[in-house]
Write a structure and sequence with these properties.
The chain is of the alpha/beta class. It folds into 2 domains: 249 residues, tm_1862 like domain (pyruvate-formate lyase- activating enzyme), CATH 3.80.30.20; 73 residues, Arc Repressor Mutant, subunit A (Orthogonal Bundle). Helix content is 42%, strand content 22%. The chain is built from 14 helices and 15 strands. Strands 7-8-6-5-4-3-2-1-9 form a 9-stranded mixed sheet, sandwiched between helices. A 3-stranded antiparallel sheet has the order 10-11-12, with no helix packed on it. Strands 13-15-14 form a 3-stranded antiparallel sheet. α6 runs parallel beside α8 and α11 packs antiparallel against α14. The model has no long low-confidence stretch (mean pLDDT 95).
């Protein structure tokens, strides 16, 4: 199984919290799509097996026009073996999802939409510099459902300055009412080089306290799991049969190819990243020289990857596989460091699988950090 990630580095406007590589100048859109398709041809032999997932991320992939998407799909089918039932996801902003645009998307091979809503509170949306209103978000989801999209994921954010438990409860209630198949929810992170970080440094906003953050995370888990959503990854909830196959491949350390500026790839032994510059990316592709950095993972780095990705999910860490891949030394190290968490009911072992307990999820970062190998 392999996946393809396509990074679309364009947004109509810049959100205050975002540190992904993207820009608001769309004049290079045609040249970018041409370069993307050329890159796919150059790198086609990197994915000889069947492609099971394709994911358009960004940026804002819903800024692409019909001719762009059609050209990309034609290119992918020309260069790769795409499974007939491949999961094909496109991220979209609610205000891009007009009747005409959704109708166009429904005529393409796309079978999953990931809609960046973030909040159903207009004040929060304004604070985040989102382009849509709560009403537009609700209408966009319903419009997509009416056009036959049964596999829809929405994103929500919590832990925003001045966000109350009441507001968060209302956001969750509205998300559940939309009856989407998948919900991803993330705590606000103050990334450097973002406007949000600048506001924090200037003392113009105050982050929520740890106790409030913990309460909101508990509300998220309780509310969604009580409505038949399965908490299958720390930030992801889905109805049965609707787990993100693409993201799951990341967490299971499967191969994927990243196309576009700043896109990451993984071949099982090496990670690489395309240069985070649209101009240099296009020039490099046109010259036949791809500008990217490659990092070869050593044994301890692969072990750490397995700890990080395995414990994030409900599938946990297969201890037999850990021992087979890395030997007794790493297995013993893992179990020695895990013991205090097993004793404290923060980790458990079920049929040879090491899994976070409900309480362990709340301090998962610390647990995973303690189990990682330090050279």
């Amino acid at each position: 199984m392999a996946g393809i990630y396509i990074h679309i580095p364009f947004c109509k406007t810049r959100c205050t919290y975002c540190d992904f590589y993207t820009g608001t100048n769309e004049t290079q859109m045609d040249a970018f799509v041409d370069a993307l398709c050329t890159e796919a041809g150059i790198r086609k032999d990197e994915i000889p097996e069947r492609v099971e997932t394709i994911y358009f991320g960004g940026g804002t992939p819903s800024r692409l026009r019909q001719e762009h998407l059609e050209k990309i799909f034609d290119t992918l089918h020309n260069h790769f073996s795409i499974a007939p039932d491949a999961e094909i996801t496109v991220e979209a902003n609610p205000d891009d999802l007009s009747e005409e645009y959704v109708d166009m998307l429904s005529g393409l091979p796309i079978n999953r939409l990931s809609i960046g809503i973030q909040s159903f509170d207009d004040r929060e949306l304004k604070f985040l510099s989102r382009r849509h209103s709560a009403r537009q978000a609700i209408d966009a989801v319903k419009r997509c459902q009416q056009h036959g999209f049964g596999n829809i994921s929405i994103d929500l954010m919590y832990g925003l300055p001045q966000q109350t438990e009441e507001i968060w409860q209302q956001n969750l209630d509205q998300a559940i009412a939309l009856n989407v198949s998948h919900i991803s929810s993330y705590h606000l992170i103050y990334e450097e080089k973002t406007r949000m970080y600048s506001l924090l440094q200037a003392g113009r906003i105050t982050p929520v306290g740890e106790e409030v953050s913990t309460t909101m995370f508990a509300m998220l888990i309780n509310r969604l799991t009580s409505h038949s959503y399965i908490h299958y990854e720390i930030s992801a909830f889905a109805r049965e049969g609707y787990f993100s196959r693409h993201n799951s491949s990341y967490w299971k350390n499967r191969r994927y190819l990243g196309l576009g500026p700043a896109a990451h790839s993984f071949d099982g032994d090496n990670r690489s990243r395309n240069i985070p510059s649209l101009i240099r990316y296009i020039k490099g592709v046109e010259s036949g020289t791809l500008n990217r950095e490659t990092e070869h993972l050593n044994t301890s780095e692969k072990y750490n990857e397995m700890i990080l990705t395995g414990l994030r999910t409900m599938w946990g860490l297969d201890l037999a596989e850990l021992s087979t891949r890395f030997g007794d030394k790493y297995h013993r190290y893992c179990m020695q460091n895990a013991q205090k968490y097993l004793d404290g009911d923060l980790l458990k072992i079920e049929e040879g699988i090491l899994i976070l307990t409900r309480d362990g999820i709340f301090i998962s970062d610390g647990i995973m950090s303690d189990l990682m190998w330090i050279d």
